[in-house]
Batch of 2 targets.
Target 1
Amino acid sequence: MTHAIVIDKVNDHQTVEQKAVALPDLAEGDVSIKVAWSTLNYKDALAITGASPVVRSFPMVPGIDLSGIVLESRHAGFKKGDRVVLNGWGVGEKHWGGLADEARLKGDWLVKLPESISLRQAMAIGTAGYTAMLCVLALEANGVTPDKGEVVVTGAAGGVGSVATALLAAKGYRVAAVTGRTEEEDYLRSLGASSIINREELSGKARALNKERWAGAVDVVGGNVLANVISMISYGGCVAACGLAGGMDLPTSVAPFILRGVTLAGVDSVMRPTSERIEAWHRLATDLDMEKLESMTREVAFEDVIAIAPDFLAGKVRGRIVVPVDPSLN
Ligand code: NDP
């Protein structure tokens, strides 16, 4: 039996509770893991609240992320005692996830944690931080270097936004942080933001082209905010788009792409090939200031996970949340 958060559907009505359940004998689960830490991301909040059809089979243990220690492995790449991290692959959506004290997963989905990152730090980073790293890698791959000019991060006070701000600032970029919570200015400056932009400024209908303002962008919001950002990217710049916190639509035109050579780089973390995950985790180990990571991280007890989930959808969560499952492990 494992102690878990369990989402179920009864008569078309979603239920969620904390209880003891027997781990299913999943055919693809060739590695058993003692979960040390888990976390909450925007997608976990969608699953737990049922606000969006994230969960594809019931009953489901949510948690798209976990860090822990291998208990038993039939996979050649992992052995008992290995420190591992799991992000995505449909875990917490189609396969039982990280909000439980044990998980049975496919070894092909796991990444060995770099030595310098603790199991707790791995979850302070979580899918949000790993995705922020993928966005920075996308900007680099598209030639957006610090000397090209300021870059902009939207949803900056959230999980992806906070880590992206810290990573970019550490690499020497000047970072404009877009937020709906201007009261978080001191927090965003402490992460390395050099200027703060009120989200309102970018929320109206976008023009096809606007004054060139930024060399690159990390966008977690979508909708009008993303359309406005694209219209203000300077010649040859790039926008790494990963989120939909403000909406799924993208009311823009082809003008920025065909007249300014702007690149819209879509970033997906869920199905990312393992080699790119390993690269991202190693870059996080070298580039992310762990004191800044700690300053953006809050611990939420396992018992409080269900109650806190709606705060994500209300845009009230600052930075990252970690959930201790067996914090004695490191
Ligand atoms: P958070 O809730 O931590 O952060 C989202 C931030 O977006 C909020 O803090 C807020 O920032 C801003 N925001 C919230 N609501 C709105 C709104 N209605 N309009 C404009 N801005 C808004 O979530 P995460 O950082 O974990 O995830 C951000 C997004 O990225 C989500 O859509 C998530 O699904 C997506 N994502 C995608 C991944 C992928 O693989 N493509 C992986 C990880 C996340 P502020 O208060 O500063 O304005």
Note: Residues 41-43, 127-128, 131, 155-161, 179-181, 199, 220-221, 225, 242-246, 267-270, 312, 315, 317 surround NDP (CB under 6 Å).
Target 2
Amino acid sequence: MGVLEVVGVASILPFMQLMAEPDAIEKSRWLNAIYEFFHFENPRQMLIYSGIGIIALIGVTNLFTIFTTWLRYKFSWEIAHQLSVRLLRTYIHKPYNFYLDNNSSQVNTYIISEVGNLTGGVIIPIIEIFSRLFMSIVILSMLVFVDPKVAMIMFGGLGGAYLIIYLSQKNYLKRIGVLRIKTNLLRYQSLQELLQGIKTIMVYNKREFFYNRYSQASWEFSNIQPKYNLLLSIPRSVLEFLAFGSILGVTIYLYITAGNIQSAIPRLSLYAVAGYRLLPAMQKIFTALAKLRHNYPVVDKLHNDLRKSHGDYKMTETIKALPFKDRILLNKINFKYETATRPVIKDLTIELKKGETIAFIGSTGSGKTTLVDLIVGLLNPGKGQIIIDDTPLNASNVKEWQEDISYVPQEVFLFDDTVASNITLGIKAEEVNRKQLERATQLADIHTFISEQLPDGFATEIGENGVRLSGGQRQRLGLARALYKAPSVLILDEATSALDSITEKSIIESLQKLPQDLTTIIIAHRLSTVKHANCIYILDEGKVIAKGTYDSLIDSNKSFQTMVNLS
Ligand code: GTP
Ligand code: MG
């Protein structure tokens, strides 16, 4: 594009020479050569044909510009896509505690919005700088070739002015760039929270508070934009003034030195056309530099997140399960959340045998969920080890260990898809094991509901986060999902708390009929849920204060007796 534009600009000189001086062909070696080459009959014919030629050239240049623009955007957005999915790959592989310490909107904002800013504010400007810089340098060289002095003045004037403006804006651009990221994040965050809490917001009539939270963030964000746009456009006005001034100045200069203005017209035209091309090119370079400066904090942030990732993660999900034959040993494990001051789990040692059912009970906040998060490898103990048979759990085998496990967390995660897809977690319809699906839903006591009450049975869409289901139905879908996987370890964290006692009892009884080697860990507040467990551990502030079967605890433990009496 640069080459074409330069040829277009350069062709003005001989054309104007032809026009202004009838004897130009005799005077110029170049014009003479062209005249001879095309066998023109007279200068007039040459003038007309070269005029048509130049028009055609400008046409081609502009067509080519369209093409390169398309190419440029295609290239940039391809990078944007690559970057966006690479970021997601990085985030999705971050340790679980990353999500405890960061607001999830951050990930959302970076992957979608900031990658877009990176494209528009960094990648496209870099390409812009290269193409315009090339063009500017060639046009300038041409001017130097024609008249070094004028070229130096032109370049010195334009370049110097841009440089001064850029240097004076540079720090401010960066500062508002950092602020822009922050306020953009707030916008996303407040909106996401508003939508998640819509039910509470409606009932408590707190629309105004949450509306203002978004409005405030949006206002701060929108405040930055006009400042930024103003900074980008200031130099243009200054430079246009300078350029017109200098063209006039050069005219006067040439008039004085050349004596007659007629012979100066070709050159003046060249300067005018060169200026006409050079000015926007330099303006674009300036804008690109300013955009780069403003958006550099995005590069910093995203680069930082990508750099901290460990290589390029594979997305394959076929992982071989860790062989689990005999026992899980929690050996003196300690755990403290990074943002907390006190440890949640203290020197805990527990052994559970394969095929057993154990239960954790204890007051709220005593560390039960934290403990199972440690067992499933979502969190890593600060001290101590989790040992599967004889294999200590570590970063390299945790995925294989998780293949053995089905975990029904306190809050069942559901997504806007069909019932079947929610249970199988995205297995393609034709690959679903129908028999297993039926069995899992029967065990979780949700089969009748799905097949008789849902309009499309297993193909019914359940809405965002399962809004079209009741709390108990959601929990039973979570259970069905856990059972569909046919795990060797089943972990239920308050997984039946939303069910009525009769439904819960029947589910717990059918779970007991499952294959003998299924190891089950149950957390429950309702004691009837854990009655049949081989061993019940009572947790208090991260320590086991008592353990035993239901009956032995009733006999021996005062606080357990109180719990039973209360329930
Ligand atoms: P219930 O589910 O209410 O019965 O409690 P639990 O026994 O499951 O407690 P859990 O393991 O969830 O929490 C134990 C302690 O860790 C509590 O004091 C929590 O406040 C604290 N805690 C839980 N999650 C986090 C976290 O992500 N960061 C920090 N700093 N503390 C946490
Ligand atoms: Mg809990």
Note: The chain has 19 helices and ten strands.
